[in-house]
Amino acid sequence: MYDVKITAKHMGARVSPKKVAIVLDLVRGRGVFEAKKILSFDRSKSAKIVLKVVKSAEANAVNNSKMNKDKLFINRIWVSGGPSLKRMSPGAKGRVDPILKRYSHIYVSLDERDQK
């Protein structure tokens, strides 16, 4: 399917996948240095979590695969839904309204960009 070389993942992040997807669109396809700069200035909770995953993937690439730090870019980055905590809130006429506390699985894949 895809030639995935370097990956990092965060399983069970306590933030909704819908909110994480907004942040992922900011950094998709960018260089790692530029992506870290964008994420460090974003004040959302999901940006802090994604920044940690990007830094982890960068460390995996540099230390495990001996890749050049300056050539790295975000090849693929995606989020999927994790398990949901199901809670109840009192509703009208003695009924209950469900509350879903959603979790996310965040994946980052890096690759080296060819310098021309």
Written description of the protein model:
With 116 residues, the chain is of the alpha+beta class. It has one domain (6-112): Ribosomal Protein L22, Chain A, CATH 3.90.470.10. 35% of the residues lie in helices and 38% in strands. The chain is built from 3 helices and 3 strands, in the order E-H-H-H-E-E. It has helices at 17-27, 32-41, 45-64, and strands at residues 6-13, 72-90, 96-112. It has a 3-stranded antiparallel sheet. A hairpin with a 5-residue loop joins strand 2 and strand 3. Helix 2 (32-41) packs antiparallel against helix 3 (45-64). The longest helix is centred in the middle third of the chain and has 20 residues, at 45-64. It is elongated. It starts with 5 loop residues before the first strand and ends with a strand. The relative contact order is 0.28.
Key features of this structure:
single chain; 116 residues; alpha+beta; Ribosomal Protein L22, Chain A; 3-stranded antiparallel sheet; 3 helices; 3 strands; 38% strand; elongated
Q: How would you classify the helix and strand content by structural class?
A: alpha+beta
State the separation between the terminal residues, measured CA to CA.
26 Å
Could you name the CATH topology? Ribosomal Protein L22, Chain A
Provide a count of the helices: 3
Number of domains: 1
Q: Widest sheet: strand order?
A: 1-3-2
